[in-house]
Amino acid sequence: MIQPIALEICVVCLGIFLLMAESFSFKSNKVTLAQGAIFGLVCVFILTFFIEANPPAMQDSGFYVVDGLSLFFKRFALLATIFTLILAIDYIPIVQRLVPAERPEAGSGEFFILPVFTCAGLMWMASAADFIMIFCALELVTISLYIQVAYMRRSLASLEAGTKFLVLGALSTGFFIYGITWIFGMTGETNLALIQKALANLPEANHTAILFGLAMVLVAIGFKIAAAPFQFWVPDVYQGAPTPITAFLAVASKAAGFVILIRVLQPFLVLESFQGKLTLVLLLLAALTLIYGNLAAIPQTNLKRLLGYSSIAHAGYLLVGLAAIGDAFSGRAVVFYLSGYFLMTFLAFLVMVPVTKATGGDDLSHFNGLARRSPGLALAMLIAAASLAGVPFTVGFFGKFFIFEVAMNQGLYLLVFIGVITVASGFYYYFKVIRAMYWQPAPEGVGAVPVSILSKIAIVVSALLILVLGFYPQLLIQFLP
Amino acid sequence: MSSVSPLLFLILVPILSAVLIMVGANPRFTAILGAALNVLFLVVIGVFFNPAQAGFQFVSSFPVVAQLGIGFTLGADGLSLIMLFLSVVVTLAAVCVARTPIENARWFYACILLISAGLVGAFASVDVFFFYMFHELALIPTFLLIGIWGSGDRQAAAWKATVYLATGSFILLLGIIGLYLIQPEGARSFDLRQILAHAQAGLIPDSPVVYLLLLLGFGILVSLFPFHTWAPQAYASAPAPASMLHAGVLKKFGLYGLIRLAVPILPDSVQAFAPILLVLLACNILYVGYVTIAQRKLDFMLGYSSVMHMGYIFLGFTALNQVSLTGASLMLLSHGLTIAVLFALCGEIRERTGTLDFSELGGIARATPKLGLAFGFAAMASVGLPGFVGFAGELLVFFGSFATGEPQMGFLNDKEVFGFNGYQIATICAVWGIVISAIYMLRAYRRIFMGPLPDRWSRLPDLSGSPHAAIVLLIAIMLFFGFFPQILVNLVTPALLLP
């Protein structure tokens, strides 16, 4: 049996090892680094099945919890990083073109290594049960992502994205720290379990201060998960960042934000007086996010930007699930939705990268006639778009169904109504991708889009999983915490 | 898991055929073979079906989400057997009349077969959740069929239909979740048998909100006035096989669902909202009927006429008695067959002449007598001539609905006078609707087939080959059940669970 903390240590060691390997072996092909990273992460993923459940050393420390939720999200982070690296291998020629260096190879090694460190941060975040720990993990993730977003130094869009992400990210960090200090000031604790105990004995007069602190923390987390009205960075950053990093941001960073949200909200929901107010805030956030994300996505013509807005929209559905937190099934509904979102978003990006490489862009018009050029890729994208829209027999439909079911069980009828209307608009903008691929003629004289073996495997696996889970979701539900 | 239901094969055959086609089998041959195999399967199932027995037969169940009581449960009773029959027969006809497109024939046939699999799955599902899911299987194939191989303003039609259907189906999903949540906690299920057992035990409160959600959701799918505008445009633009399946079978899903769910579970709400529904269905019949008369192209005329005929079936549903519901069930079959023949013939005419404009056509019955004869049969069946199954359905609906409700008694100048109630007024509107449909159908027949034959149409080829066989088959079925409607009535009667 392995200590749970060993997982993160392994990932960090893997990152350091890869950095060393990169700096001491000039001639090696940088793609080897990515393959090494994928291999290492797969090993760590296998290790997660052999860790000691609830080891005694961890029970009292209080800042690091090992439970079903944390374990699930550690695996989630590992898989997301593996998928990101697969994308990165395909995408590296574009990065190399846009990074100034004497040799084309130089300066691209870190592109494969930084996600590994981000992954370590994400894994820590999944286990963090103390505000200080959450903060540290969050910074490890965010700072490594700043670099990755701005990685393509010759691309103005990438630099702009990096700057925006940095400035707004720093602002949200400020909010986070500020909120923590208020909560610490009132309760004298940063540990979430101890805060819960302290809250019970807190005089009523101090509740306002706690709520203020919590509101600041929520602002920061809202930034992470791209909930309206803290979503302004999303479209530009998603469009400007290197495509693999966009996928990483959309999936891993958002999922981590939701884990933190679940963890942070838990102690505060125990108090009756807080419960109503927090639910109201979540309701408002969910409604705003749903409406903004879905409506703003409608006129988009760039697929990356479209997926950016769609990620806002999906955050909205997830918030609906969180707003129904009183239901016994709501936690699982949210995690199921996140897992489905993982599959379908990565599938969309896995198709997008080879197409971008072959056609030179990621506008919707670059997908014109893809069905005639590469029927397989088009079919995969069709499945991804259908699942994102929520067509039955895909995992995306079951995700939405579970969310709506718990929300209706909790009596959030207005929110569900907004959800249904926005789903309909979602059909419109996701089907725009299908239209481009199937209705439009392909440009003259183009052949099939080349896809690497690793990408092919990833595409087939995620497409099949989307369909299988769309028929038999129990397969995943039994693994949910 | 109990033994495997033979109905599973009905779903698997079209899916497997679609996969084979995508992998590389001959598209047209495989599609026809698969569809014919399904008809054969269904006939065998029909032989082993016991019409006297109430409840579902050939049941097999496989739990999918145990916590929520969702299971992949298949089964059939008389009503679903009729709908299954309609699905497989229309599928066979649709693949037979399909013109192999020059480009991408594989996707074309695969899309049609997927729609068919969704239809069979929906009507064979005992689980409400899968009933819903299977219906949605048609969404993307329809979008592709209209968008790629459609005619006219196909892009606008495809978008409109998709957004309407998606909205309707998610509203319907809310209704189904509502149906789940109003069941007593701890015993909730999506299994229709269990829901019906709860309803009979009086455990389910009659929730008007759930009924309205179901009515709105199903109503959009069935093109209930004023949510009907997507339908004529989509049917006019879609290639003939897609229109046949969509207007003929897929649209019946909504009415089938209402008869299945709303009648036994929420009868009080059905009655409470009957006045609104009566007004809407009268609009379906009269307003859309007049719109149909005004059409100048055959495809749009057929599209509107199919919207209009939904009004009759809604009338049978909302009158909520044995006679009217039996009539509505018969009309599900008859309208499905009739409109499928009409759209098939419409496709044949478009294929030959390249136009469907009444002002450009004329006299082509001289060149194509078989086509003219078939169209005549179908037009008469659509109007509801005795001898066709539609006549029996309409008659039962009218009898049933006219007898519904209390007669309105009032006093005029101190004398007691008799007045019609809402159901009776709606029935009168519906009978007037027959006149309307006779006007547009006969007019269309005259404009297209009668009169002098212009030179440019004199060399049109007549019906032949597999399209001819398919159309004859459908007309034969209409005539057969028109003479022996009792077979259908016997099948449907045990399946209708009246409150």
Give a concise summary.
Chain A is mainly alpha-helical and 481 residues long. Helices cover 76% and strands 0% of the residues of chain A.
Category by helix and strand content of chain B: mainly alpha
Major beta sheet, strand line-up of chain B: 1-4
Number of helices in the DSSP assignment of chain A: 20
Q: What sequence of helices (H) and strands (E) makes up the elements of chain A?
A: HHHHHHHHHHHHHHHHHHHH
Give your account of this protein's structure.
The mean pLDDT of chain A is 87. By secondary structure, chain A is an all-alpha fold. Chain A contains 20 helices and no strands. Chain A has helices at residues 5-24, 30-47, 56-59, 68-97, 109-127, 131-149, 156-187, 192-200, 207-225, 234-240, 243-269, 272-297, 303-323, 330-359, 370-373, 375-389, 395-409, 413-439, 453-471, 474-477. Chain A has 2 domains: 1-270, no CATH class; 284-481, no CATH class. Chain A is 76% helix and 0% strand. Chain B is mostly helical. Chain B has a domain at 273-499. Chain B has 21 helices and 6 strands. In chain B, the strands form 3 sheets. In chain B, strands 1-4 form a two-stranded antiparallel sheet. In chain B, a hairpin with a 2-residue loop joins strand 5 (408-412) and strand 6 (415-419). Chain B is globular. Chain A binds chain B through residues 329, 371-372, 382, 386, 389-393, 397, 401, 404-405, 408-409, 416-417, 420-421, 423-424, 427-428, 431, 434-435, 438-439, 471-474, 477, and chain B through 63-68, 72, 104, 107, 132-134, 136-137, 139-140, 143-144, 147-148, 155, 159, 162-163, 166-167, 170-171, 173-174, 177-178, 180-181.
